[in-house]
Amino acid sequence: MTQRWFILSLLVVVLRGTDAFLATPLNTSDPDVAGILCPEQTVGVTRDHKWITREAIRVNIRRFFLDNPPPSQPNFNVPTTASLTQLYHAYYGAASSPARFIKAVNSIAAANVKADSATQVRHDPDIQGDAEALASLQTTLIARYPQIQTAILVDEAYPAARSLLGLSLHSIQKFYAHSTWVEQDHTNILADLGLPGFVFDDLAEPAEDVCTPCSNPQGGCAGNVLSGAGLSSGYYMYNDPAASAFLVDKPTSGGKCSHGGVLDESASSPAQGGINKDTASPCFSPHYHLHEQAAKLAVQATDHYLSVLLDVVGNEKYRRLFDLYHGSALSISIDTTGSMTDDIDAVKEQVKLIVENTNPELYVLAPFHDPTWGPGLKTDNASEFLEAVMALDASGGYGPLEEMFWSGLQLALSLTPDYGDIFTFTDAGGRDGEKMESDIARAKMQHCKVSVIYSGRIPTATTQDPRQLLTGVDDYRRLTDSTGGLFIPSDKFDISAITPILGEGVESASVDITQLQGLQGAQDIQIPIDDSIQDFEIRIAGSITSGLLRDITGTEYDLMNQVALEADPAIEIVAYSSGLKAIRWLEPRYGQWNLQTDSSSTYSISVNANSTLNFLGGFSILDPSPPHPHYRSSEGSPLINTVYYVDVTLIGYLESDVTDVTRVEYVDKTGMRLREIPYHGEVDDEFYIRSDPLPEQPFYLKLYGHVQSGNVFCRLLPVLITPVDTSVGVLATTEDLAARPGEESDADFIVTNYGLSSFFTITGTDDKGFMQSVIPSTIYIQNNSSVVVQAHFVVPNTATPGTVSMVTVTAQSDTQTQSVNSAISQFVVLPLVSDVAPPTCILNSQPDCSGYDLNGICSEKNWTAQASLQDELSGLVSVYGRPAGFSTELTGFTPGTTDQVGMLYSASCCNSQVDLIGVDSVGNMGKCRIDMGTLGGLIYDLEAVSVGETWVELRWSMTPTQYDIHKYTLLINDDSSEDSRCQEEVCHHNVTYLRPCSLQTFQLTPHFYVGGEDRVGQAASTQATTKDQVPGAPANGQVVSVTETSAVVSWDAVNTKCISLFRVCYRPYGIGATTLCEQTATNTYNMRGLEACAVYEVTVTSLAPSGLPSSDSLVFMVNTDEAAPGAPRNVEVALSTLDTVTITWDDPLDRAFCVDKYQVSYSEKVDTAKQTKEVGRVEVEPSSDNIVTISDLIPCTNYTFQVAAVSRSGYKGPYSERDAGTLEGEPSPVDSLALDMITTVSLHVSWDASMQCVDHFLLCYYNDEEVGEVCNTLKDTEETLTKLLSCTAYHVSVTPVTPSGAHGNTTWQSDSTLEAAPGEPQNLTVVQETPHSIEVNFDPPVVNPQCAVEYDYQITDQGTAKVHEATIHSPRLDNNMNNLEACTAYEIRVRAVSPGGLRSKWVTTRAATSEQVTSEPRKLELRQKSETMLDLTWWSPDENDKCAQSYHLEWTGPGGVTDSKNILPPAEGELPFEVEAQVTDLSPCTEYAITVAAVTPLGTLGPVISLSASTDC
Fold first, then answer.
1. Is the pTM of this model over 0.90?
2. DSSP label at residue 192
3. pLDDT tens digit string along 861-901?
4. What distance in Å separates the CA atoms of residue 903 and residue 629, rounded to the nearest whole number?
5. 987-to-959, 963, 993 alpha-carbon distances in Å
6. Distance CA 629, CA 264 (A)
7. Smallest Cα–Cα separation from 1478: which of 1456, 1502, 1511?
């Protein structure tokens, strides 16, 4: 089991900037750098690793292009000084974009620089070549060599190969800066360095002295390396805890070398001083004087290593390594579950059209299903791709509705090259969201735009596997926002309207100008179109309600009018549907365009263009610490509020005539500017801009500047940059992650948290599924603390050596969930056995081209050679001849064979140097070298070394030959020719009488004396452009046609030989308006967006190809046609009096030049319906202040004033309107206020008034019954007051009111409403009952209570029906009724009475008087008697007789014996007036004393009546 270390570290730093054979260029004006590099002492230019790598690649690719010219240019040539971008344009055409190529170059350079950044790698002598570890450096390079080769040959994993290659190039370049190779007077490179089979045999022994002391430990030092000493390198010591495990102490023998410089602590130890050649600065590099030589050898060594790599991998894979191809990839990831049937059918049809009409360099197909995905397809064969697409079948679907979306995207990313567009089609969510973060990170790293065409909706999941993370529309939007793609919601049957944009994904020159996401409502967007733009396209995803685009001249394009757009030949409709509009403008006018849109829903806008000008951007942090100060590229997402350096790589700036870069902007998804960083430095291939602290919101990076014409250019980096509070980066601490088939491997990662203390979720994934786990998956990390997690990999036995799996490790804070970062590395499957032995090659025959080794006769003889090649250990995977001959025949070859392979190679003698190459499966290369000498008489490096207006100086060299050169014939512009008799090794020839400012082509053909005859050799070609002469000024300006808003003008060109373009400028004559300028290649121009009735001054200037203007310009005037002027602006009332109004206004914006006079009409407002009556009109001459006073107006009157402009011919434009009123006087009083038509509830009010200054009347009224006054505002002079009280006196007033609200005199009048019957009294209640009285009270009537002035009363004895009546002439609401009988029930009735005697209905209640003791009963008599009985009678009491509820009868006999009984009324009745009672059971002949008393209901006995009576005997 092997173990590898990685670091996942959090970078929270704010550093000041610098520039540094260092990793990157450094700004020596930065104080953090000045003390290290002492710029005032620097001699020459410092070359850093990035420059060396890019320069070597430039040299190598130029040679590769020359050796493999385009089919259409067999004599292809390019100047030796051509830049990377110029090389690409020369080979693929000026319209092609080198962005992918530059990105590939930069990726290799970045991997090189990373060796000075990555923890531990930066300190490792095995990588840096310090501390005499040159043998270990070679061992490390050899170990990595097969990984580079097989990553390309087996898996075509080019990103991984670039990373590994950059690391190896770092060590190779360091060898020349850190070792004593240059000091040993080597003028050539160590060609075998880094290649298998090479072992150092001349290294210094451990005890061998190599250096002598310098006179000073710091500063420059020369001659301190001992002559004859073995090869060595310097010791480097500095204080860094991370370096302690790697740094090697300098021996104390006193004869070993130090690295040297201000950062090296060992420089003061014997032998003091140092030997490094990293820079041209003596304070950092003691051997600064050898820096240029070391850098030159480093470039050559890098070029050589790349050439070896080319021999191993072959031409096509070498092109892929550097992304050297014109087109892009057509990359599709598509859901193939059953619900996608319609979508797949639509995609099939569109893809077929795309394949038939475009030429993508690669085709990628990545289907995904459920629960599987793949297999993926990457091919350059259109038929194979089309066959795979047509074979797609929508079926099935397993388990949840969500599909394996992110797995399909991961597959597409693994197959798609950088800067590709990936289109994903699905109608469901993803259930493999654990891959989301790694997919987004990888897409951003590869600069791949991912667009999602979504034709479904995400259902709510009720159950899910806890190991699966469901994702939906919001996550798709985040994906597209982050990568610069589009989220396109699409109807199932609308896919065919959307898929045409797939064809655009194969364009290679596309650049982004702006990108806006999540827009809502109205938007106003500026779109700068610069001169390098050939065409541009606006894409709108989502529905809009309006869209209007204006060009620099004001010409408008309605994006909602599809018919008009399609009819315009300068416009191409790419896609047009409700959900997506993609519209392209061909050959647009340069300048500032304006786009205005509106929508009631959310939408997105992107603008891209075809242009040669683009940029790459990234963030770096200055690291001034040892061993090598540099700008360290930021890993993962950058930090909020942190100062970075923006690393700008400007692509195509020379070809696009960029004059300056002015600023960088950070803009959010809606286009709002978050930061603006100005830049005033020089423009170069690469430069750094010190940034302001980063904002908290996600943002895009925009770069602004100018091109030669003065137009602004704007480019956007479409990757959404999301700053975080906690930055997590993954940095390799050993150089590789690798294992063999069948092995397991553990990789440790260090996670460092500089943010809030939190639990972190750690996840990992890789393409090939080697990663089995990351343990722990959740871990708590405190602030400024680190922990170690371990990833476990298992490589199956079936894995092919050379397979590369891209590994992504992600750390996300659970507290700050937005702080999520991913880092990407590669895992390489190593060969089962270590094989460093190259294949063998035995040449079985040696060709001979004697006598035919001259350019010109070499094609007259052919030759063949036979060779046997074999690799017995790893097996041959590639056998070929370089350069290609007539034919190459192989026998016994199958990839991987360990048997002998025969090769028969045939060519002409023009191929005098040939390699017959065999490559084994681990990348070892063996070859037979057929060298019959350099072909003689071959012209090389033909180029123009200087040019003038009418001449070009050419220089060329020729390979040595035994034959005499007769002459050179130079064909000039495929027309004339002249001879040169140069006999030197390097020839010069001045071609004169050329046309200035034009492209000149030269074909140089050598002529030799061969056997007394003149033989013509192979020609060489080049071209150059003569300098510009001042072009002649145009003449004879004419107006061809004119309208109200446009004019076509023409002119004659004079002295046209140096005229490339004409600059046409025009502006309105006589005013300080902006001048509009454009360029045209013809001598006619259509002036658009003009004002009618205007005189325009037109200036036409001739321009040479370099932009040099003619000394004079043609100036003439153009009059546009007459039209009705626009509406006057800002009509205002300046002053109002009692009878005048003063009006002012501004000239119209539209057609202002057409104004001859102004017409002011004024109308009186006659009613509230806004009707007016015109009362006057005046005409006014235009003036600077535009003012008029209207007189004889009526005071206190509202007027409407209308101002319209009128042309000379009487065309009247639209009017502008303003309301105004004259000032107020005293309002006229009210006359004859009358109250009539009175009813019980209303009265009519009317009055007379003259209405002078009366705007309205205030009618108020009140009565004596209610509190408060009611007021109404009236325009009329009468009003009926309703809902009044009957029987009520009302007091009415009318007051005139002016328009401003001032009141006049008030007039009063009073009257009463008619009488009405009052309503019934309410809530009649008995308040008190006494024996002889009853008190009642009640509430007034609800209806007409004011009419109740008195009340009638009735009280009826319910026993006798006797009625008592009374009328009380008072509004009192109570009454006490007296003289009633006690213990009597009464009915009481009350009614209200009006003043006129109108009465309400009765209201009734009942009550009873209370009891009172009665008087004695009356007339007690004995009616009959017997011996034992007395029969008695009596009458009821005279007083309060109704209170006698019973009688108490008592009798007393002799001896005082008393007895009694109660006399009660019958069960249903009352006691009679005369009561009869018997006393029984008496004694005969006895006298009794008898008494009777009345008893009240409460049991009170009244006075008694007595009687004596005797019984019979």
1. no
2. T
3. 999 999 999 999 889 999 999 898 899 999 999 998 999 99
4. 52
5. 12, 17, 20
6. 12
7. 1511
Taking the CA of residue 1053 as centre, how many other CA atoms within 13 Å lie in the half-sphere pointing to its CB?
18
Contact, 985 vs 971, CB < 8 A? no
What's the chain's average pLDDT? 87
Amino acid at 856: G
Please tell me the distance from the alpha carbon of residue 740 to that of residue 830, in angstroms, as a whole number.
Answer: 5
Per-residue exposure over 313-335, b if at least 16 CB sit within 10 Å of its own CB, e if not: bbbebbbbbbbbbbbbbbbbbbb
In Å, how far from its chain's centre is CA 307? Answer: 43
Q: Are strands 804-813 and 778-781 parallel, antiparallel or unpaired?
A: unpaired
Cis omega (within 30 of 0) for bond into 528: no
Q: Which amino acid is at 1283?
A: K
- The confidence band for 36, taking pLDDT boundaries of 50, 70 and 90, is low
Does position 62 have pLDDT exceeding 50, yes or no? Answer: yes
589 DSSP 8-state letter = P
Comparing C-alpha atoms, which of 941, 915, 933 is closest to residue 855?
933
> Residue 473's closest CA among 485, 461, 490, 456?
456
Cβ–Cβ < 8 Å for 20, 629: yes
- Counted residue by residue, the chain has a size of 1513
371 cis-preceded (ω within 30 degrees of 0): yes
**C-alpha to C-alpha distance for 873 and 777, rounded to whole angstroms:** 42
1387 CB-near residues (< 8 Å, 6+ apart)? 1354, 1355, 1356, 1358, 1404, 1405, 1406
- Residue holding tokens 């970062």? 821
351 pLDDT band, cuts 50/70/90, is confident
- Distance, C-alpha 942 to centroid of its chain: 50
Q: Per the structure block, which two tokens stand in for 379? A: 């091919």
H-helix or E-strand spanning residue 303: helix 291-321
Is residue 1150 helix, strand or coil?
Answer: coil
Do 618 and 117 form a contact (C-beta atoms < 8 A)? no
Compute φ and ψ for 491, nearest 5 degrees: -70, 150
Token code pair at residue 390: 């047509």
Residue 1152 burial (10 A CB sphere; 0-12, 13-18, 19+) = buried
Label residue 1322 exposed, middle or buried (CB < 10 Å: 0-12, 13-18, 19+): middle
Residue 397, C-beta contacts closer than 8 angstroms, at least 6 positions apart: 337, 338, 339, 369, 370, 403
Nearest to 839 by CA among 969, 754, 926: 926
Q: What does the block give as tokens for 147?
A: 């990984």
Average pLDDT on 300-308 reads 96
Cα–Cα distance between 127 and 654 in angstroms, integer? 36
8 A C-beta contact, residue 728 and residue 756: no
Distance CA 1443, CA 138 (A): 141
Burial of 442 (0-12, 13-18, 19+ CB in 10 A): buried
3-state secondary structure (DSSP) of residue 264: coil
Q: Compute φ and ψ for 941, nearest 5 degrees.
A: 55, 45
Distance of alpha carbon 155 from alpha carbon 893, whole angstroms: 21
Report d(CA 15, CA 669) in Å as an integer. 28
Q: Are 468 and 439 in contact (CB under 8 A)?
A: no
What is the separation of C-alpha 246 from the centre of its chain, rounded to a whole number of angstroms? 45
Q: Which residues touch 412 (CB under 8 Å, ≥6 apart)? A: 331, 332, 333, 364, 366, 376, 422, 424
CA dihedral sign, ordered 1305, 1311, 1316, 1322: positive
Q: Which residues contact 1031 (CB under 8 A, 6 or more apart)?
A: 997, 1055, 1056, 1058, 1059, 1060, 1102, 1103, 1104, 1108, 1109, 1110
**By the 8 A CB rule, do 766 and 737 touch?**
no
